[in-house]
Structure formats: C-alpha cells, structure tokens
Amino acid sequence: MRLVGAQAAGDGHGRHAAPLLWGEPGVVQGTRTYLLQDADGQIQVTHSIAPGLDYPAVGPEHSRLKDSGRVEYVGVSDAEALEAFGLLSRCEGIIPALESAHALAAALRLVCELASGSHVLVNLSGRGDKDLDTALAAAGAGDVAA
Fold first, then answer.
1. Which of 11, 51, 53, 146 has the greatest CB tally within 10 Å of its CB?
2. DSSP for 33-90?
C-alpha cells in the first residue's frame, strides 16, 4: 500500500504552508517537528487557501512518517485545490473542505500514474460549506461549486 499526504504548496509565489516539503526540523510549542523557519529558527509566515493547513508546522506523527519513508508527501497549490473542490462539488454534489480538496487534488494527480484496476482512498475530513465564500472569491465568483 502506498500512502501519500498532501501539503499546501500555496499560491506559486513562494507563499506556502508545506513544512514537510520545504521545512526543517525544529521546535515549536514544545514539539520537535518539521517547521518553516528562517536561519535563526524564527517561524516564517505561511499561506494556504485552506485555513486548517495555514500553519508553519505539522504534528510529530507526520514528521516520523516522513523520516521513516512510510508516507510520501506532495505539494498541492491553491489553484489545484480549488479545481478539485469544484470538481467534487459538481460531479458528486459533495462540497469538500478546502483542506480535503488538497488531498483530492493529489489523488487526481496520482491516478494518472497507477495501473488499471488500482484503488485510491481519499479521506474527506470536513464539510466545505464553510469554505464556499473563500472558494467563490478566489474563483472571481465563478462557478467553482455551481
């Protein structure tokens, strides 16, 4: 079984919230984990369209999974997450949380690499009705969820 985690790669202008991809081990709030920090160990500003991912660190469990090689982490941009948000909303009538939309986008990319007959499981961690205003504003009030 292959485990893949999605990190918030942000807006493509160097603003992101992906400590497992571009962070270094450090200590924040009493926990040693991967975090986004400068050369002096000061926490860096983060960005993600998903409020639950807009944080400079990850839980220590994810740090351990990364270090062990058990989980592969990939970056998903805000734009990719919004596209997956709209796709699931339109095709299935399920409005995912923007956090879950990052996982959906990673899964959509992953299925192109897999052999026919493979199975993919995506965990939807929350409802996206709370994110509709953000998604619509980011899409210029387009038809993201319409």
1. 53
2. EEE-B-TTSPBPP---SSGGG--SB--HHHHHHHHHTSEEEEEEEHHHHHHHHHHHHH
**What is the rounded average pLDDT of the residues 134-142?**
79
pLDDT digits (tens, 9 = 90+) for 11-54: 978 899 999 999 999 999 999 999 999 999 999 999 999 999 99
Integer Cα distance of 65 and 69 in angstroms? 6
- Per the listing, tokens 């192109």 go with 112
Helix (H) or strand (E) holding 25: strand 24-28
Q: C-alpha 32: how far from its chain's center?
A: 21
Rounded CA-CA distance 74/132 in Å is 25
